[in-house]
Specification:
With 81 residues, the protein is α+β, with helices and mostly antiparallel strands. The chain has one domain. 46% of the residues lie in helices and 25% in strands. The strands form two sheets. The protein has a three-stranded antiparallel sheet. Strands 3-4-5 form a three-stranded antiparallel sheet. β4 (61-65) and β5 (72-75) form a beta hairpin. The protein is elongated, with a radius of gyration of 17 Å. The N and C termini lie far apart (55 Å).
Length: 81
C-alpha cells in the first residue's frame, strides 16, 4: 500500500469515527430531551434505538410507525415536558 493510500485510509477512518460519535450524541440527546407523538392518536413514545436507526429520516423528523395505532407517518420530535 502506498503512502497516499494510507493517508486516504486514515482520513476515511477518522471521518467514520466522527460520524458515529455525532450520531451517538444526537440519539443520546433525543432520549434525554425529546419524544415522538403520533399525529393520528396522540400517543407519545420513545422508540428503541434500532427503530431510530432503521427508520427513514426526513427533514427534521422520521417516518415511523406508531406502536399504538399502527399508523406510519412523518413525525418531528417533540420536547419532553
Amino acid at each position: 500500500m502506498g503512502k497516499t493510500q494510507e493517508i486516504i485510509l486514515i482520513i476515511a477512518i477518522i471521518v467514520l469515527i466522527l460520524a458515529i460519535l455525532l450520531a451517538a450524541f444526537r440519539y443520546r440527546y433525543f432520549y434525554k430531551h425529546e419524544h415522538f407523538e403520533c399525529p393520528k392518536c396522540g400517543y407519545s413514545w420513545k422508540p428503541s434505538i434500532l427503530k431510530m436507526i432503521f427508520s427513514e429520516n426526513a427533514v427534521d423528523g422520521k417516518v415511523i410507525k406508531c406502536p399504538k395505532c399502527g399508523d406510519r407517518e412523518y413525525i418531528e420530535p417533540a420536547k419532553d415536558k
